[in-house]
Amino acid sequence: MKIQENLEFIDVLKRATKLLCGNTNLVLFLFLCTLPLFCFLIFFELSLQTTILVASEYFSREVKFWGYYHTAPQDHAFLKNLISLLFQTFLFYLFPYSLLDLFTTTTIVSASSLVYTREEEPLGFGQLVRRTVEICRNRVGGCLITSLYILLLSTSVFFGFFFAATNYLYIVSLIGLGDYSFYYYYISIEEDGVSYTTPSSFFENLNPSRIFDLVMAMFHGAIFIVLLAKFSKWSAGWNMGLVVSVLEEEEEDGQGIYGTDALALSSYYGRGHEKSGLWVMLVFLW
């Protein structure tokens, strides 16, 4: 596998679109392969969002009702629910998601490579499936090792996302954003008996503690954005590592390249293509 062209982001999308439009069997096969991962991601995203909201709500309740004995049993049950959600989300990320992602990536790379490099008439659906399964079966060991390295690296970023999102929602709940707790209403009674209600402005109620919370909320929001950009850039390299594990082989013994060797070769191939890889990953993440 040699990279001979420095393709821009638009050129990459054009090549991919041309490849898909030129073979309906490939489109059908890729749709069937990605369907399990797509369905699971919907479920996983709901579980992740629920866990983040429950975690931020728990920390908010701890601060708001600190020292009140009557809330202790309720908070204890709330904590048990939070721990179970955290454990469930972590297991979902480690096993079903990682395995489905590995299966989807290897099949997409194998099938796309077969269609892209074939100069004769297009492969039939049955031929495409058989040859893809053959490639995946021969490379499954190396791809699994590479995916374990990727899982180790991506898990730390995943925890960073979770930490930043939880703290952001927690601080926002302290500030009062999302409701109108920072508005205070005053009633003035005139001589004719008519009452008027006037809300105070947000800036009139600012105090050092609230300003600090605002700064911390913006800080964690910035951390989340930076992590998203870095994760997109790193994901491009990690995915390239899986591509190397599927397609590359050593010239001496014909064995596949996997693990740290695949990631190192991916980094070498990615030099000068970081911007294109970042844009591609951002498009598909959104």
From TrEMBL:
Superkingdom of the source species: Eukaryota
Membrane-crossing segments per the record: 20-44, 77-95, 140-162, 168-186, 211-231
This protein's UniProt keywords: Membrane, Transmembrane, Transmembrane helix
Cited PANTHER family: T23E23.1
Protein name: Uncharacterized protein
